[in-house]
Amino acid sequence: MASSYPQIVLFGDSLFQGTADVSGGFSFQAALQAQVLRRFDVVNRGFSGYNTSNALSVLPKILVPPTPGGPALKYLFILFGANDACVQLPTNFQHVPLDRYKENLARIINHPLVTAHKPKIFLVTPPPLDQIRVTVLDRANGHPAAARQTKISAAYSEAVRQVAAQHPGVTLIDLHKAIMDAAVAKTPGFDPSKGGPALGDPEGGVRGYLEHLLPDGLHLSTEAYRIFYDLVRPHVGAEWAGTRDQDRVGYVLPDWRDAPWLDEDSHLRGTSL
């Protein structure tokens, strides 16, 4: 029987689809795969434009029940909301109401195809929005106004925090906070403690360092994906971290030095490719 590798599945919208991009010199997906090489397969199931209702409809097409010899789902990262949070416009139909969004996230977490594998589940908050930049691009693309708004997007990120808190065993990855904290730290003179509008909110008129982290106002730059990876990295690999031979523990197929065929081919011992 062929050896199957357990899986880490990145299930989300374009923000996960984009983790495969290497054009900026760093790929979130590649970095994560390198971290778990020979132990897990990192499977990208990011779908540009999808909302949580779309996600539920395709979930049976991307996950299969556990089977002997089949790949086991060990980690599931869920990142939806940037499209659910779209405002209702005649030129856009991605919006999912906030209450239904929360229900959909709960349904994904508790879906029989997910629970059958008993994976470690991580809910990721959608990142902040630079509505100032989004407005310019959306109008150029034929929308009468911005398809997304800073305050609404923030409410959907808060909803993710609530859903994670309501599900014991689910871990929250607060990408919204991490990206905004990084942007604020690199925006001289901006003080969020004063309670004014957030960076990227037209009411305040300040994009600040969001310009570099969210180049189109919505999607992550290479720098932002590094921030995202730094959030995820500590949660993966505890199975072998700190073990005596942590560089080889958990391999699906044995290290060449531990391979059973060495007893049969003793003349190969001490050689490597």
UniProtKB/TrEMBL annotation:
Protein's UniProt name: SGNH hydrolase-type esterase domain-containing protein
Keywords attached to this entry: Hydrolase
InterPro entries per UniProt: Iah1-like, SGNH_hydro, SGNH_hydro_sf
Molecular function via GO: hydrolase activity
SGNH hydrolase-type esterase domain location: 10-227
Species this chain originates from: Parachaetomium inaequale
Keyword Hydrolase attached: yes
Keyword flag Hydrolase: yes
